Amino acid sequence: MWNIRNSNQFRNNLSDSGEFRRRDRWESVRLKTDTAIRNWIDEGLKYSIVTVVLISGETWDSRWVKYEIAESEQQRMGMLGIRVHKMKGMDGYYGTSGPDPFRYADIYKSYPVYDWINDDGYNNINRWVEQAAITARR
Predict the structure, then answer these.
(1) Where are the domains of the chain?
(2) Three-class DSSP category at 2
(3) DSSP state of 87
(4) pLDDT digit string, tens, across residues 64-123
(5) Which fold is adopted by the domain 2-135?
(6) Coil, strand, or helix at residue 51?
């Protein structure tokens, strides 16, 4: 969600190489081959220490979300989920809530899941990401 990616609270504390991957980048790669998509995900993970999964109604069923979660766990990265269904999308509509995607990925560890609205993500995302990195010992 654009609101989370551009959160001033989070953006001001990113390192020079750190950033949320932008949706327009995904849109440019999603219609390419499976290999191209895997390479794009792998390249993004190469410079990351924490994976933040934005959870909406269909997130749990995305094979690419499952792939990114599995790869992140294999690399022993910190992870967390953020539910975004109570936020308006760019289309002006609220999203739907979905199951926890960590339960549907091929992993064996549980990760924290927060709600951007109920858990005050704007003010807490720094703490959530930092805690995920500490938990992963990164």
Answers:
(1) 2-135
(2) helix
(3) S
(4) 999 999 999 999 999 999 998 877 666 777 778 889 999 988 788 899 999 998 999 989
(5) Rossmann fold (3.40.50)
(6) strand
